[in-house]
Amino acid sequence: MRLGIFGGTFNPIHYGHLRAAEEVRYKINLDRVIFIPSGNPPLKSSELSDAAHRYAMTKLATDLNVNFVVSDIELRQTGKAYTVNTLERLFEIYAGDELFFVLGIDAFLDIPNWRQPDRLIGMIDFIILTRPGFDLKDIIKSPFISGRIKTDRIVGETITLKGGRKAIIVDIRPLDISSTEIRELAREDKSIKYILPEAVEKYIYTHNLYKS
Ligand code: ATP
Known about the structure:
binds adenosine-5'-triphosphate; 7 strands; seven-stranded mixed β-sheet; alpha/beta; Rossmann fold; single chain; 17% strand; globular
């Protein structure tokens, strides 16, 4: 099977995530998209809801889509889960399947700050998504692009990364939604309706999330 690995804090999950996962699924012919909510870091900021809440909201949001799966792989880990280690474990679990690491252009450009970025870039093929507020042209600033690329023509293209892996650039319907904005709205008692699934909205109110 062709599997998309879609990691995030999902604090909370919103329609930007869900639509991106759905578009990438049918545009790249993935059989499944596996959502991987991050675990609790050792020093958790008050901004970050407990991993159990973020996992529960991700489950609620994806329940009705048979092509979406939520993994608790990073939640079950004691200590900080690093993407390189998560991927190693996923390669074991899904041995025989073809895995793609799905992430927005903002997250891709942040990879140099992740653990063992050079190793990560050589481990798996990537699917890089457009995202409102972030310029795809900034991809040339990534230290992981191999050779010269024409930034005006990369949407829909496959580029080569240092180490030989590929990255497919996918144009996603622009939904200018971020979890940060949703947390701010909730904190200020403003409506968060229609930017995330209703079940997630209810969960946030029931558990009094994002209030402090
Ligand atoms: P925060 O505002 O808390 O930083 P976020 O909305 O960016 O959160 P994350 O959970 O950090 O959400 O994102 C997980 C992945 O989803 C990242 O790869 C990110 O680029 C992508 N993503 C998030 N929102 C969108 C969106 N509106 N459109 C496309 N991709 C998105």
